Amino acid sequence: MKAVAIYPGSREVKLIDAPEPRLAGSADVRLRILDVGICGSDRELCAFKYGTPPAGSDHLVIGHESLGEVVEVGSGVSRLRVGDLVVPMVRRPCPHAACLACSADRQDFCFTGDYTERGIKERHGFMTEYVVDDERFMNVVPRALRDVGVLVEPLTIAEKALAQIQVVQQRLPWACPAPAGTRGAGCHRAVVLGAGPVGILGAMALVADGYETFVYSRGGGDSPRARVVAAIGATFLDAERVAPADLPQRVGAIDVVYEATGVSALAFDVLPLLGTNGVFVFTGVPGRAPAPRQIDTDGLMRNLVLQNQVVLGSVNASRADFEAAIRDLTTFKERWPDTLAALITGRFSIDAFAGQLLAPPADAIKNVIALS
Predict the structure, then answer these.
(1) DSSP bridge pairs for 35
(2) CB 203 within 8 A of CB 162
(3) Global pTM value
(4) What 8-state DSSP symbol labels residue 21?
């Protein structure tokens, strides 16, 4: 079967012929992979910034945003049936019994760092035709989400961030009157940094939760990304026309900043603008800057203390986050069907991997390798 793999030793990215996997245990399921989303992490893997093959292998099959269809189940499988659509989780627990997080199936908070991740760290990923995996890591997706189900995994980033904000803000009288069905954010303002897939999906989740939402990104007001932002009821702020320092004037008091760019210079320009009792969430992982950058550490510390602010980082996701993403994606499809579909800007065969991974088009929001 076809698969896209990186070879860190020789720094090559190849379309390979891999053996089809077979069930090895009673809890195994065999998936026919339908769609694999391409993200910045995949391109960084192909640039060999990170990526670790499984033990004994000289290559790593990449791809971690996936949608598959169950085609075979082991004798001990109880939750899944042939024909189910599923999105597999990415991170897998470490082997240490002393890691309370992994022992509680919260490997997204692994204490040891010895977790593995499909398509990233020591486990082959999903950019291939068939995969065998354990039932416990599968999340069933309604058939109605067949065309957009590949967006579940990137949406989990926002779902985890929103869940953490809600937990953190239990420290104060945070809730306010909100529309039915939201999580009580009805009078708060959020700024999303970046209008890539993670940023736009985060904006959708924030709007659905009742936040007055602003998306700060490059691109004119008539760009495809700006039109998507407007269509969901958020406000697009062009970073080429609005300086970071002007955000409070345009937005008002900023209760939440959801960073989705991985650009540390921008993030630390915006962090001092966070409002009283606000939460700043980092989701991007920046590369190494060419030179150190000076920041006003005294001012940041003063704000954090005197304004009761919180800064947190969020990476990977738990089963609860995947389930929340599936529920919210269903809501998004009901509320913004055309806009949600427009996030997937292109579907390409696996043979066209190089054009998407090595020289990606600049105007794409989310491109997908479609295997079926």
Answers:
(1) 67, 370
(2) no
(3) 0.94
(4) P
305 band by pLDDT with thresholds 50, 70 and 90 = very high
Tell me the HSE value of 57 on the side-chain side, using a 13 A CA sphere: 16
SS3 state at 345: strand
pLDDT tens digits, one per residue of 14-33: 999 999 999 999 999 999 99
User: Among 280, 249, 255, which Cα is nearest to 266's?
Assistant: 280
Residue 206 main-chain phi, psi, to 5 deg: -70, -45
**Residues 6 or more apart whose Cβ sits within 8 Å of residue 86:** 29, 31, 67, 68, 69, 70, 80, 138, 139, 140, 141
- Strand, coil or helix: 312: strand
Tokens of 85: 């659509």
Residue identified by tokens 């600049």 is 362
Q: Residue 281: what are its φ and ψ, rounded to 5°? A: -110, 120
Number of Cβ within 10 Å of residue 248's Cβ equals 14
Which tokens go with 188?
């708060």
